[in-house]
Amino acid sequence: MKIAILGAGGLGKAAARIIEQKKEIRIVAACDNSGFAIDEKGIKPENVYNLKKNESVASIGKKSFDAIGEIIKKSRIIDGILITLPNLPNEFIPSVAKRFLQNGYEGAFSDPLKKTQAMKIMFKMHAFFKKKKSAYITGTGATPGLLTAAAVIAAQSFIKINKVDIFWGVGIENWEEYKGTIREDIANLPGYSLKKARAMSNEQIEKLLDRTNGILRFRDMEHADDILLKKIGIVDKLSQVSVGGVMDTRHAKKPVTTTMRLTGRTFDGKISSHKFMLGDETTMASNVLGPALGYLKRAIWLKKNGIYGVFGSTEFMPMFVK
Amino acid sequence: MKIAILGAGGLGKAAARIIEQKKEIRIVAACDNSGFAIDEKGIKPENVYNLKKNESVASIGKKSFDAIGEIIKKSRIIDGILITLPNLPNEFIPSVAKRFLQNGYEGAFSDPLKKTQAMKIMFKMHAFFKKKKSAYITGTGATPGLLTAAAVIAAQSFIKINKVDIFWGVGIENWEEYKGTIREDIANLPGYSLKKARAMSNEQIEKLLDRTNGILRFRDMEHADDILLKKIGIVDKLSQVSVGGVMDTRHAKKPVTTTMRLTGRTFDGKISSHKFMLGDETTMASNVLGPALGYLKRAIWLKKNGIYGVFGSTEFMPMFVK
To answer: Which domains does chain B possess?
Structure first.
């Protein structure tokens, strides 16, 4: 699989670390907002993940005001595109994907997108992706993604699903490595919005974290698990799905065990819950980018098999990447 | 989905009970070894699950020495076939599926097959199914099936999988309802074989159960979870997958919680385990036939999308059946 990584922040770098240990994947293109690198023979993953905090992909490639445009020019060498761009605003990622197709790319995409609103925009492009013979799988991270797919498996035992509760624990030693995704999470706190979170300086975020001892607690987050499960009929109402979590931004140890719990009624009238629990030692990087690459392999498979469109991570099993 | 149910023992009847509560499915054909029923407008599920212990499908349809042959004659009305026949000997289920295709059926199959040897015979027919434009998903019950699919999801977070441990608890009030599947399980006990288990009279099984107070304990069972996970590269060696369990044949309450535990190494060198646990209140019927129907919907989808062959339940996500 010759892939492009769009976005070289925390998620993009973590993807590069994982890819270094996966024989099946070669990075042939990477970019951020000020630079790009393209090499059909393969960009060394370490060149991506060794980029320093404020260092651009330009330092291993070329500077550009339109790095995505540069990658699009060479997109015929790309089997699949992993999108690890910050999704602020909601239209950004959908517009990038659209631009690839408008400029002749026919291929596959995987995107660990979290926000319901952004995903709705993606799904509206289903017909366009079909026309352009491309396959896009969205919501391919941990939640939605890994845990939502586990909910699809769990749902099999039940006639009627009452609720799906996803509660995650994340521990990160240094929040600044995940600036983009943490801003998206902060947007879920009472009194915050995407716009407000995006406008916050690092210092303001530090201040917020000082007040909470580095701990952020979330309830009823806007996570697209709900529309992904409703799309395939597992729940009837979005309110049956709840996503919450606890993030410790100062310690790698998880404050709680990440758990998906699906509760339903069986044909013989029993109410019961199946659970999927992630090992506490596994990090956000493993649980988000592992699935995102597994789904990218599936998206490439879909494209190869002539199945085109925009799909949720609940619609297909991720494939295992060796 | 207009489906046929082959085999009207405990599993076939449980399927009928589930289907009664699923709007999307209509039973258009059913059979056992001495009779069959066919009705394109739909056979009432209760007519199937109300059959008494020694009553044949003939009593709601017609007697026949070749019930399967009769269904094959009308197979153009069937979208998908659920196979709930006892798999003794290993060649039996594969030979039934083959016969459908040899006689002009083009469609979809789901089969909650458990035995490695039987599944190997199925996979050898991959090219034949491709040629006959049919899709067959095998191992679509609980294990393999529900729990093996959960292992595929769990594997996403890891670079290298060390082991997959499946340990199930089953409680059934009356083992005679599941004569076929329990004989298959007994074959796994030390000193037994499929042939020997099959030859046992009900009285001999009662005697065996009396000695163990109705409890059967299994370790390192021949379950096809191993070849299904190896087929897609999640494990390199079959020995990395172990299946065991405890069955209480006298109480509905499960003696242990059914758990799939996948242990692996992450890209950052951590050893950890993800777990998938089934609610204790859910029965074997829910956990085997629910997935089997979800996979049948997927098999019909595969056929519709021109993807033919024999596949494992680890290769595709089951679909949710409303």
So the answer is: 2-143+285-312 (3.40.50.720), 146-281 (3.30.360)
